[in-house]
Amino acid sequence: MKKSRLAKAGYDNAKSLLDIVREIGETAASLWWRFFDWLAQVEWRKLIIIWLLLLILGLTPFGLPKQTVGFILLSLGLKVLAGGKRKAEIEARDATSHADEEGLERRLVEARMAALQAQVEPHFLFNTLALIGQLIETDPPHAARIHQNLIDYLRATLPQMRAKGAGTLGRQIEMSHAYLAIMQARMRARLAVSVDVPDHMLSATFPVMMLQILIENAIKHGLEPKIDGGRIDIRANVDGQMLQVDVIDDGIGFNVHAGDGLGLANVRERLRMLYGQRAQLVIEAPLTGGTRASIRVPYAPDIFAEGVK
Amino acid sequence: MNPQSSALPRRATALIADDEEPMREQLRNRLREAWPGLEIVAEAANGIEAVALAGQHQPDIVFLDIRMPGLSGIEAARMLFNRCHLVFVTAYDQYAIEAFEQGALDYLLKPAGGERLKTTCARLQTLIGRQPSNIERQLGALLAAQGKPARPDPAKPEYLRWIQAVVGANLRMISTREVLFFRADEKYTRVQTEQSEVLIRKTLKELADELDPDEFWRIHRSTLVRVDAIEGVTRDLRGRQMVKIRNFSEQLEVSRGNTHLFQQM
What we know:
The complex is a heterodimer.
Chain A (H helix, E strand, L loop, with lengths): L1 H40 L2 H16 L5 H52 L5 H17 L1 H18 L9 E2 H19 L3 E6 L8 E2 L3 H14 L6 E10 L2 E8 L11 H15 L4 E6 L5 E8 L11
Parallel strand pairs in A: 2-4
Antiparallel strand pairs in A: 1-3, 4-5, 5-7, 6-7
Helix pairs in contact in A: 1-3, 2-3, 4-5, 5-6, 6-7
Chain B lengths: L2 H5 L4 E6 L3 H14 L3 E7 L2 H11 L3 E5 L7 H8 L4 E6 L3 H10 L3 E3 L4 H14 L8 H10 L16 E6 L2 E6 L3 E7 L2 E6 L3 E4 L3 H7 L5 E5 L2 E4 L3 E6 L5 E5 L5 E4 L11
Parallel strand pairs in B: 1-2, 1-3, 3-4, 4-5
Antiparallel strand pairs in B: 6-7, 8-9, 8-12, 9-10, 11-12, 13-14, 14-15
């Protein structure tokens, strides 16, 4: 009984001793590889300085001149023979992981952008279809025009039908016309619209669906809830290197307790992704009432300008 | 089916309320076909007008669009339900349609017409001359679902979502989602966003009372920080907790009394 317990204890001792030896071995190996990687990557200039310092230390009375020289020769040999290959390996590995990260980041941004782009509101769609139904009976040519406007609007708005990449200001205004024409048919005299954008700015790069979101907001939150309705003005101007597009309404103005909804948060987020700090969404409450929403982006008038970066 | 209603349609009066004129025209035309004996005595372009005209004309039936300026169809209904029979009209209001089904309220989908309109008219014909049913409870539930409680709930205050700041000659609206932090600065409060820094007259105390306490934390007597903007908390050499803000260089001190906010971090 006692004997076997002793034997077991001895066995345990031996086992833990083995573990310690193995651990020391592993640590030594990992230290060696760390040293090896360091040696492969270190600049020659730095290495030579270290050797010089070691030599000076080694030549003092307490030093070990033989070992120092041995170390210097060993590291020199390693650096010359294996260093180049190892260095290339490490660099290639770093570059790959970096490229993966960048690719992933870009895909992530693209996916978020797609999710952020505006959706067609069912309420708008059903009301417009009801309107077309009514116009077919009373005013067929008008019905055909609104029908065409709805098609244009859906083409511009449905994410799967929308053209990829950045749009131009002209194209964005064109798309807004379809929406505004539909809303004017529905609201009749309650909605007046004016667009004041100089022709030479129409070719400027302007992100898709942002003007649309500002206009929809102005109507939905500013003018539709106002009994008499009102007017909406769309203006563009260039100030230095920046293009500013304003959407101004004289609606019921701002409710400071209402959340800023998906629309504006969406515009802000996309501007940040596209331009970083160089673009801005500004919301103001003019003293005359209503709301002014402005988007400022770097002015890029060339229609052949690729992208926005 | 009531033989009287199909053979000899009763005469009745109705009011149509819809902010979109083409939609009023549509309902008027379709009603004329479905119920020739129904006289449209007035049309309203908003909820307030609907209530006023209903008081003036005392119609038997009121057709109410749900989304209208002034008063919504449901708000108007709360003022009319014991005087006339109500029919709601909507193109798409999913929450309302479900509530109508549950509360047995009458409703039509735009464009109204066909069998559905005939069924509604037949039902209304049997109701003419009777006291409208009390639907106050259903309307209260509908208003709550719409996000407008019948009575403001004092336990659930409305939080400030926009900061008004005078910038030049304009009043700028800054979404609280853009704000990184607020900092007391003598008589003013500094509003810091990623892109700008403005001063407002509101004190930090007023802001702390009006803002959503889950959105902004008071980490110091003079600092309110947006929780989402916090990147991390570190300790400086003097042992103070410092809040690091995302995409911003300035670090903000956490006062001793507020270190509990970051105990778990």
